[in-house]
UniProtKB/TrEMBL annotation, chain B:
This is Lipopolysaccharide export system protein LptC. Keywords: Membrane, Transmembrane, Transmembrane helix. It holds the Pfam family LptC. The chain crosses the membrane at residues 12-33.
Length: 152, 204
């Protein structure tokens, strides 16, 4: 089971997704688009930064692309911030349609003073809920008025 | 000649007058009547002949060849005229072109351009549009492309829209990789905006 946490404020999944990068490579034959060079993916108040993001298009049944982005696959060390929370991990897959981000590879989530580490963080941007899985470790800052961690 | 007293001579006298007149009428109808039927103007192009001769302008010239990788390249223009810049260099108007690649065809279109047949390059200028097979339409002011092996370079800002959304970039270059596949690279600051709304994605 995973530890449920709040991540950022719920946001509408239909907001425009903006991607800025130093370079974009379009390979017609392979049907791929690759952003590279400090790529920033933004939607609403979610920001996801990574050195490389691969775009996979939506495809219909027999595999030719029907236009539209299906998933953004960020690799090479990803940080995601939304509102006050920030999460870091090796890779992240952002499925634009469902507004879900799955971050994997020793993920570290920081919320104010507290930190939550685990192997895999799944965040639903639409409802602002996240689930951390894979030997989850919670790090408290032992201060006298430390806020209760939001773990349910 | 004394007056004829018998009908036959009178008949001959009249015939000598009537018959030539009839012949004359018949002959003149040959020229007058047939002309009235189909009076069609002889079709001829009212192009300014000496202007054409002076400028040696080519009407809808087309250039086609194959690249080193055996991809065929074709380029047509509405008009092209030799430019003073040198031999084998043409100023062309209203160009359209097509480059064959692995992933389908790349279409080029522009208002004007300079074709250098020696160096095998084409410098397109004036709302250049590049269309790719997977649905990207790239617009820029200029585009330099070499025809020997396919390379494209917009040398300047470019905007494009396609499956991944609409994007702007400082520059776009495209080149043929080893296997003859063409990869388009946008650089000098890429910014893309994708609207999931109009893709009918299913918001939770």
């Amino acid at each position: 089971q995973g530890t449920g946490i709040a991540f950022g404020t719920p946001q509408d999944g239909d907001q425009p997704v903006e991607v800025t990068a130093e370079e974009l490579q379009l390979d017609q034959a392979a049907g791929t688009a690759v952003f590279s060079g400090n790529v920033i993916v933004g939607q609403g108040d979610m920001r996801l930064t990574a050195p490389r993001v691969d775009v996979t298009y939506m495809t219909d049944a027999d595999g030719n692309s029907t236009g539209g982005i299906d998933r953004l696959h960020a690799t090479g060390g990803v940080t995601m911030t939304s509102g006050g929370e920030a999460a870091e991990g090796r890779e992240a897959v952002y499925t634009v349609g469902s507004g879900q981000v799955v971050m994997t590879g020793d993920v570290l989530l920081t919320q104010g003073q507290n930190a939550l580490a685990g192997e895999r963080l799944t965040v639903g941007l639409d409802d602002g809920q996240g689930v951390m899985e894979g030997n989850v470790r919670v790090v408290f800052q032992p201060q006298d008025e430390a806020a209760e961690p939001a773990a349910q | 000649m004394p007056r004829a007293d018998n009908p036959y001579s009178r008949f001959v006298a009249w015939a000598k007058v009537i018959l030539p007149l009839a012949a004359l009428a018949l002959l003149s109808s040959l020229f007058l009547l047939p002309g009235r039927g189909e009076r069609t103007a002889i079709p001829f192009a009212d192009v300014d002949i000496d202007e054409l001769a002076r400028e040696q302008r080519l009407g809808s010239p087309s250039y086609s060849g194959t690249t080193e990788k055996g991809r065929d390249v074709s380029l047509t223009a509405e008009t092209a005229r030799p430019s003073a810049a040198g031999p084998g260099i043409f100023d062309a108007r209203m160009l359209t072109g097509a480059l064959e690649t692995d992933g389908g065809q790349i279409g080029l279109r522009s208002d004007g351009g300079v074709i250098d047949t020696e160096a095998d390059t084409v410098d397109l200028a004036g709302n250049v549009v590049v269309t790719t097979a997977d649905g990207y339409v790239v617009r820029s002011d200029r585009l330099r492309s070499t025809l020997g092996q396919i390379t494209l370079d917009t040398l300047g800002p470019v905007e494009a829209d396609g499956p991944a959304g609409t994007l702007t970039a400082g520059r776009m270059t495209a080149s043929e990789t080893g296997t003859g596949n063409v990869v388009m690279v946008f650089n000098e600051g890429v910014r893309l905006v994708y609207l999931p709304a109009d893709q009918g994605s299913d918001p939770q």
